[in-house]
Amino acid sequence: VAQYIEICNAHYYATRDPLGVAGDFITAPEISQMFGELLGLWCLVQWRQMGALDPIYVVEAGPGRGTLMADFLRAAGQDPAFIQALRLHLIETSPVLRSMQKETLHVEPVWCDRLDDVPEGPMLFVANEFFDALPIRQLERTSEGWCERLVGLDGDNFCFIVSDKTESGDFPNAEVGAILEDCPAGIEIAEALGKRIANHGGGAVMIDYGYAKAEPADTLQAVKNHQYHSVLDDPGEVDLTAHVNFERLSQAITEAGANVDIFLTQRNFLLTLGIDKRAEILSAEATSEQAAEINSALNRLIGEDEMGTLFKVLIINNETTC
Questions:
Q1: Which residues have a Cβ under 8 Å from the Cβ of 293 and sit 6 or more positions away?
Q2: Do 301 and 32 contact (CB within 8 A), yes or no?
Q3: Does residue 153 lie within any of the structural domains?
Q4: In angstroms, rounded to a whole number, what is the distance separating the alpha carbons of residues 150 and 264?
Q5: CB distance 123 to 197 below 8 Å
Q6: Within a domain: residue 49?
Q7: In a domain, 152, yes or no
C-alpha cells in the first residue's frame, strides 16, 4: 500500500495544481488569510522568545501555492528585523507548485527536497496538511494474525490483498478484518525534526487531520473534484491521504530529544491566537457581503462540525530556547 501511495501521489502532485475550486481540495490557507497571518505572528513571537536570532531558518513543508507563506510574511513583516533575519526554505518537490510559489511570494525562497537539505541552525518549522499525504503501511487482521495489506490485480482492476506472512502488531484482540496503519516516512521526518530542534533550537507547528491515540481503523481515502473517490481507481489522478497518528509523531519527536509543548484542536489553537478578534477587525473594514464571507471562513476553520475539531495541532520546541 505504501508503495502504491508513493507512486500515485508523486505523479499526482508533479503534474497539476490540486488546490482551489478547479482542483480537488481546499486547505485552510486558501479559505482565509487569517490562517497564515496567525501562523506568521506565532512564529514571530517564538523568534523573539528565542532571543531574536539572526539568521533564523523558516521552513514550510508542503507549501502548496505559497498562500500560507505569503500571508505569514505579510503579518510577520510588522517586525522588519524578523524579515531581515529569516532564511526562507520551502520543502517542495513538485515543479508545478514550485512555479506557483515563486509567483505568489515576494521574496526568493530556497527550495528543498527534504528537511536535511536545510542548513544547520535554529529553525521555525511549519507544516499544514503535509503529513497526511505521506505513504502509509496497512496491516490487516486475519485469522492467522496481522498481515501487510498489499495492492494486487483482479483482472484489469486493482484490488486489496494480504501478504501470507504475519507481522507483530498491537491490539492482539482486534477482530478479523481490522486495519492498523503506520507511516514510516512521517516518523522519519518527525525524528529528524526533533533531533534538529534539540540540537540547534527552534520550534515547530504541525497541523493536520488525525487522531491523538492509535486505534485500528482504515483511514486511507481518495479525493477528486472535491468528492470522495475510490482509492484504487484512477491511480495518479486522485489525492490520496490518511489520518495522521499524532501519538507516534510525538513519540518520535520526544525520543529524538525535542519537547512536545502542546497538542490541541485547530479550533482551540486559532482561538488562542485570536482569530475571532482578527475576524472582527477585518469585518469592520469590509462590506456586508465581504463580512459574511469572513464569518463563513471563520466557521470553516474553527467550527466543531467543520475543520475545528477534526484538525489537530502539534507544537514542539527546545525548552532551552523557545
A1: none
A2: yes
A3: no
A4: 34
A5: yes
A6: yes
A7: no
